[in-house]
Amino acid sequence: MANLVEATSQQQFEDILSKAGKRLTVVHFYAPWAPQCGQMNEVMTVLAKEHAHTTFVKLEAETLPEVSEKYEISSVPTVVFFKAGEKVDRLDGAHAAELTKMVQRLAVAGSPNESSGGEDLNQRLKKLINAAPCMLFMKGAPQEPRCGFSRQIVALLKEHSIQFSSFDILSDEEVRQGLKTYSNWPTYPQLYVNGELVGGLDIVKELAESGELENACPKAVNLDHRLKTIINQSPVMLFMKGNKEAAKCGFSRQILEILNASGVDYDTFDILQDEEVRQGLKTYSNWPTYPQLYVKGELIGGLDIVKELKESGELAAVLKGES
């Protein structure tokens, strides 16, 4: 695809950054010998399809040492984000879910469709609010809240086993200011359930104290239980596009061929038939792509991992739950 390229020289890399202009460019510094880089490349391919206005670049770190040294690449995989030729962020390590979140956040801010018009902003806010059944707009991230109120509300949600997604308002001033008007709520954090504003920290505290918090977020809690049930309905469970009889993407087709050749019994779940499972499992498993293979309730990984296990001779033992 046109927006996913491999940079093989320093000049080509600089030309790519120049042509991208203010649009987001995502550069994966990788090594072909590192298996975790293969998974990140798979994620890059999926993201390139979803973000047509973002440029995704694969760059072999050891082949272009001058570029790697310039951006202080000391290990792989490392992903560096650029806008207008300047580095704006980076991600060290094989964190596929975090890569997806960062691309979503940075790509929206640099989209050519971005407009200062209120109508476009409202559409964007509506999309963010509905990005998950339970959505928290906060300062910082759940792993690292950047204000006391955000820290308290995250602790409450975790204490009551509420599954939620979040958006860091400090990363986007347009969202930070616009959501106050959109929701008619002037402070943060703000919690939304099924697209509706629940309120801020004081409201969530009251709901927790009255025992109503779980009822206010039923879908988030029930989805977690539902996913766990589906994952454990068979010792070997494959979440894929299509089913055993008819795979609906190349990755799913390849993993079916490997499993069929193994002789192990397995069941499948077609994520194309259930959008709630399709989106929810990405968060539950912290794995943003499909197919996903589980053995005895534990995530094994995607196609690349299964291929590696087959090549190393470990697949049969893994599928039997012996390792």
Automatic annotation (TrEMBL):
Main localization, broad class: cytoplasm
GO terms, biological process: intracellular iron ion homeostasis
GO molecular function: iron-sulfur cluster binding; metal ion binding
Keywords in alphabetical order: Cytoplasm, Iron, Iron-sulfur, Metal-binding, Repeat
Domain Thioredoxin: 1-108
Pfam family, one: Thioredoxin
Entry's Gene Ontology cellular component terms: cytosol; nucleus
Cross-referenced PROSITE patterns: GLUTAREDOXIN_2 (PS51354), THIOREDOXIN_2 (PS51352)
Cellular location(s): Cytoplasm, Cytosol
PANTHER family to which the protein is assigned, alphabetical: GLUTAREDOXIN FAMILY MEMBER, GLUTAREDOXIN-3
Protein name: Glutaredoxin 3
Protein's organism: Nothobranchius furzeri
